[in-house]
From TrEMBL:
Residues 1-22 form the signal peptide. It comes from the Bacteria. Residues 263-411 form the Amidohydrolase-related domain. Gene3D superfamilies: Metal-dependent hydrolases (3.20.20.140), Urease, subunit C, domain 1 (2.30.40.10). This is Imidazolonepropionase. The lineage of its organism: Bacteria, Pseudomonadati, Pseudomonadota, Alphaproteobacteria, Caulobacterales. Pfam families: Amidohydro_1. It comes from Brevundimonas viscosa. GO terms for molecular function: hydrolase activity, acting on carbon-nitrogen (but not peptide) bonds. InterPro entries: Amidohydro-rel, Metal-dep_hydrolase_composite, Metal_Hydrolase, Metallo-dep_Hydrolase. Keywords: Signal.
């Protein structure tokens, strides 16, 4: 009977992800609706065919399955940025970590979308924290919580085949959804990733100035290649420091079409990166920016968004001497579009994204801005505004019904929809708990049941 129950439970979980569920007309009524950009009291959210149909104060449409959310909060699904969800299971186990690549011929062209695992045990845990989408980024020296620390062996030079070793570029990010199923990829190659500041200097040879020169030279080579592909094919072009795959991957960066996620912390480095982007016509997204509050006006004037962890407030290095908890509030007040990150690479602790947003509110960030920073802003930053992260007609039906304020730690996500499909409220941890606490199938060796 235990085995039959487990099989039935698994079947139910799969049923939640079946396309037929997305066809059902569902109305979530009576809750305090946080649309991502506004608040609707006693609101009604109607979803069908995987999309939001309407958001307002009207009654549920005829024939709809009604979900009573009175006394609860309804919000868009949260978005984890600078995340490793689906790309890494255990960062210290190399075979389970597909976020970092060491080949000198595949750097900028490294595409994390090919290593995504829809069965990763980290996805349901994050989903239970209200996370329904994530921007998955490759690791690199000095990166977010999932990044690795660089050492002297990271210094650049000519590696195998005459190519850069290591490269200035870590690879390309992807957007995923967290619904149960076999295909979690939403969009690959949404941004290029590169370290600057102290970590970037280490990659380039030890000095910040060296990295900027190398970066400019690399973009010059990319543009040369783009203009002379026929000559390159017949070996009629001078030797270049990147492989063909990497040159091709960097063309949209050099053309200002693909944003470059720049990990940078120190205020002085932020200003130099802004200058570099202006001189080269490159579209950038700042990642980290712990000292961003010191140059918030310049960041805002450049119309550059920032991915940040608002609880980074300790001078862990000389790059973060001025880190403070008011960073998010100061950047927002200056008019910078911000997205709030989770902790430790936003993988196992991705669910703490909302806790970090709550901490930012306690240090001056307006509540509405904090909600935007974990819902609608990530979509805006990565060129997908209106597609997710917001409760509006036509957007993906990523909806969470909360027991209370989503920024309060004791609040839980009671019901979760991704692309209009309601998700089973479970995870591997819950299954293991129930297996051993209740003596379920496999809790004891078969001989004990005889």
């Amino acid at each position: 009977m235990r085995l039959k129950s487990l099989i039935l439970g698994a079947a139910c979980a799969l049923a939640f992800s079946a396309p037929a569920m997305a066809q059902q007309l569902t109305a979530i009524t009576g809750g305090r609706v946080l649309t991502g950009t506004s608040v609707i009291e006693n609101g009604t959210v109607v979803i069908r065919d995987g999309r939001v149909v309407s958001v307002g104060t009207g009654a549920a449409p005829s024939g709809a399955t009604v979900i009573d959310a009175r006394g609860k909060v309804v919000s868009p699904g949260l978005v984890a940025v600078d995340s490793g969800l689906g790309g890494s299971e255990i960062s210290s186990v190399g075979g389970s970590d597909d976020l970092r690549n060491g080949a000198n011929t595949i750097s900028a062209s490294f595409d994390v979308s090919y290593g995504l695992d829809p069965w990763s045990i980290t996805l349901p845990v994050a989903r239970l924290g209200g996370i329904t989408r994530a921007v998955v980024v490759p690791n690199h020296p000095g990166g977010g919580g999932g990044g690795h620390a660089h050492d002297d062996s990271d210094f650049a030079g000519v590696g195998h085949g005459g190519f850069q070793s290591p490269s200035l570029f870590a690879g390309q990010a992807a957007v995923i959804h967290l619904a149960a199923g076999t295909d979690i990829l939403v969009k690959p190659r949404v941004a290029m990733v590169a370290p600057f500041g102290e970590a970037g200097a280490g990659v380039a040879g030890g000095a910040r100035g060296a990295q900027f020169v190398q970066f400019k030279e690399t973009l010059a080579e990319v543009r040369l290649y783009a203009r002379n592909k026929a000559a390159y094919d017949r070996a009629g072009l001078r030797d270049l420091s990147l492989s063909r795959a990497d040159l091709e991957a960097l063309i949209p960066v050099a053309n200002g079409q693909m944003p470059l996620i720049v990990t940078v912390r120190r205020a002085a480095d932020i200003l130099q990166v802004l200058r570099l982007a202006r001189e080269e016509g490159v579209k950038i997204i700042l990642d980290g920016a712990e000292e961003g509050w010191l140059v918030a006006d310049q960041i805002a004037a450049a119309d550059v968004p920032v991915l940040l962890n608002p609880i980074s407030n300790l001078p862990g290095s000389l790059e973060t001497r001025a880190a403070r908890m008011q960073n998010a509030a100061a950047l927002d007040a200056a008019g910078v579009t911000i997205a709030i990150k989770g902790n430790e690479g936003s993988i196992h602790r991705a669910r703490e994204t909302r806790y970090n947003a709550g901490n930012a509110v306690s240090h001056g960030l307006p509540y509405e801005a904090a909600i935007e920073a974990i819902t609608v802003n990530p979509a805006r930053i990565f060129g997908m505004a209106g597609q997710f992260g917001e409760l509006r007609p036509g957007a993906a039906a990523d909806v969470v019904v909360w027991s209370g304020d989503p920024l309060e730690p004791l609040t839980i996500a009671e019901r979760i929809w991704v692309n209009g499909q309601e998700q089973a409220p479970t995870s591997r941890q819950f299954l293991l708990r129930d297996r051993y606490a209740q003596g379920g199938e496999g809790a004891m060796p078969p001989a004990y049941g005889r």
